[in-house]
Design a protein that fits this description.
N-(1-d-carboxylethyl)-l-norvaline Dehydrogenase, domain 2; Rossmann fold; NAD (chains A, B, C, D); alpha/beta; 294 residues; 2 domains; homotetramer
């Protein structure tokens, strides 16, 4: 089976490399010719459009920046649905809102095609190492068919439920990340101001009930987690801009179902404030600057 | 060496039991005669006042409900400082504000006595099992002297730095717990409303960047963490009232040093709202009711 | 000159009545035949489509529920732009986001047509009494041309600046209304809980620095403002649902320009919480229930 | 009747001047000799202590910076209660928490003395012009006795109810001021960023439902209210520090009665953030810097 891949950005490019390394034939398309050339140099075959990729592939993967791009690539005249055969499975790995994800699955079904939402987490490092997490929304049989392919690129392939549920899990997780990163920043800055060594503070929290990924793995105070962005000038990792994009998806999805998200909305505005001060391209853990830069 | 113990409540009583089990001689005092009688029935010796306890002990432990009580027990005419000998070490395990903790250490030093702040976490279950965490603020030599005694009651004895730092670490940890419990409640309720199975949602978060103690150990959605209060009608554990008391200590300490705590203050008000609705004596994870009870 | 009017809802119907009362010829369209019949009974002439209205009118007014409807009515094949003559002025009185408003003005200009945004405030009572406020975004000469017509329906015709500025002013005003209504609710409930008579409290605030429209005209505590919805079972006035719709427009517009709105976002979530509890069709001042219903 | 006055700061000094201008005999005390000398130069008589002031006066006024100072001046050995005769009325014009105010009224009553809480608003300009607002908590007959004296210093003498209610009204009003000033700052900054002239925006809001003291009298955008601090480099007026002190009193009083204040707590943290950036001595309207200084 040949695998199609559309969207060769920071995430897509290393994912293609891992598919090739696993011995799969990969057909690629991107609007950026340089990205295509690099993939071809690595062993992929180029196609002329998303439609062409779909026409030649048993499974098509997409990693695209926004709902607008995803709609365009799937629904346009030279898009995926126009080219995909009856048995081709479509897997969108972009992070988009659950409503759009479900609309696309329905549009695909109306065309007789099977589509899956499978957003990823793990960042560019995870993409390169093949240790990504995939959060998959799909019927059980469909999940079983795509899991072996995703295994070449990821370590955790989580079946989240039916169509759209991959996106729901992704935005819920990322909203909680935003809240706990902001909260960790508050208490690290508070503890330091009250005279406690940040390394000792983090170490105590990490064996107690405040423990979280943002305290024990990606601590926002410089020098606490040696490999974290905070210890390297807040070079991303995931940028504050992308964090805000994900928060916005979650807050908007909550609005659709009339669900309040008080801390989520507060984090949203704090990231907005951080970005307004020019920190948008830094790592999301730079949110601690709001509590230190005074 | 005999150990004195003042404050035989839900935490103090099982801590005394563990000291006795370790073969130590324990002298106790509490204003509640029934609590004293229970300790004596377990092998402790009763004294007539805090002063008497201190006069007969090489090390005195206190677990009391508020800064006011702690001041009273240490500073009153029949209090600890009036009775303690030169070599007696004083260890306050209550959770109070760092400023009061430091004032008491200074008051003890002015009397030629050595005092330590060592607030605990782990709840009544941890107190019974002897698996508490102690967060200790003390000079290094003093820490070395008390650590062996604390080991009889706890698993993690963390040296947080000089006087007051145990309290700082405690309130920082608990503020982060409040924030992440509230945040976890928001996203669990959001994900469920968007159609995802809460168990699947929690399981995905727990291997991702949203992972925290409140998602993987004390999840607020019923049935997700089988042993958590949420799975048992929100029977506490730590009550919402006590959570709010700890948040208040942290927000007030932040105020003293002019440090903003945006999410902390939002959590504070949400717990206030929960308690105003009559949930104060339920477990702190009942905060999820604000997002479900509609 | 004949005036076209599209959108004969709670606001549009009485506005048409006032135009007719002023002796103007009015041509109307609505997708709801009953609304059209009522306007015709009052003296208006019915047209078969938005395009037909525009083809026969020197000035076209629209009052529609959302950006999607506005786009549809202006841009569809049988829409306003397809019918309007070179000298016809188009005036949209709907409340929509500034970005969409500016896009429509540009689309009209590309067709050689002049369009104005003129959202209104004052509610159905103001629409009936002809005392609405119009917040108009238009070049100065265009403003001068439409002002006399708007005067038949409103008391304050405010020139807010160029295209889109009417919408900006509307959403800024309404966001501040949401914040001050929520804030007034907090302090009215707090003062009452602390034992002060709400009428006395409001009266003192209304001559002091806390004074605002929500305290002195539409006070949320029952009985304080005799004519306010709070004194009549929170019968709207403007509903909580519409308040939230306007808050959402403002928070989204802020997001577009990376501007933080901390209190705006908190009010947004509190209205979400109110609506989730089933109060969406009550007056916006019912937000005080979050502080009383415990 | 002679009037005693204790506390000759920015507010007290001009209040004494207005009492003297009205022909009253005034006996003063302050711990700052220069303040006493200035009052004496204006015609007042100096006493040696608070007790001495009380012993010679039929009515004693106090304006002091904090609950701690008020307690000291009333309850100390050389304090007011030690000196006041049976018929002397005590009027505390300081802003303190309602609980302390009520405790002091009870302490006075236990000594057979009548005490009133009468906090003021209007700032130093109002104190000089004799146009202050007094918010008075007192029984009706006592209010009638003191009103004529307060009239020499203020324009609005509001009877808020029984003991403590003056403080409740004061902190409720000031909390709402904090919220509406912060909210006005958000929307002024948002409107400007979206391209609307701030003067036009304010003018439209001031005839609409967003209207408040902070928009129409003390607008935070420079140049909108010509006499406001914002138009004079944010020279205070009331400082951000004092605003935060008042917010803290209100949020703490709310905590005592388990009343949530979501926007109040958010404003509290935003003022904390402003002060942490070094703006504490500027006018409270400088909160807009959080939305502009980026």
């Amino acid at each position: 089976m040949r695998v199609g891949f559309i969207g060769l950005g920071n995430m897509g490019a290393p994912m293609v490399a891992n598919l090739l390394k696993a011995g799969l034939a990969v057909i690629v398309f991107d609007i950026n010719p340089a990205a295509v050339a690099a993939a071809v140099a690595g062993g992929a075959v180029a196609a002329g459009s998303a439609k062409d990729v779909a026409a030649q592939s048993g499974l098509v993967l997409t990693t695209l920046p926004s709902p607008r791009h995803v709609k365009q690539v799937y629904l346009a005249e030279d898009g995926i649905l126009a080219g995909a055969g009856k048995d081709t499975v479509l897997v969108d790995c972009s992070t988009i809102d659950p409503q759009t994800a479900r609309e696309l699955v329905s549009a695909a079904a109306a065309n007789g095609r099977q589509m899956v939402d499978a957003p990823i987490s793990g960042g560019t490092l995870g993409a390169q190492a093949g240790t990504l997490t995939f959060m998959v929304g799909a019927e059980a049989d469909l999940f079983a068919r795509i899991e072996p392919v995703l295994k070449h690129m990821g370590k955790n392939i989580i079946h989240c439920g039916g169509p759209g549920s991959g996106q729901v899990v992704k935005i819920c997780n990322n909203l909680l990340l935003a809240i706990s990163m902001t909260g960790t920043s508050e208490v690290m800055a508070l503890g330091a101001r009250l005279g406690v060594d940040p390394k000792v503070l983090a170490s105590a929290i990490n064996t107690s009930s405040g423990r979280c990924f943002s305290s024990d793995t990606m601590n926002p105070w410089p020098g606490v987690s040696p490999n974290a962005p905070a210890s390297h000038g807040y070079a991303p990792g995931g940028t504050a801009e992308i964090m805000l994009k994900d928060i916005n998806l979650a807050v908007d999805a909550a609005r659709e179902v009339k669900q309040p998200v008080m801390l989520g909305a507060a984090s949203q505005q704090l990231y907005q404030m951080l970005i307004a001060r020019g920190w948008g391209e830094k790592d999301l853990s730079a949110i601690i600057q709001l509590y230190r830069d005074q």
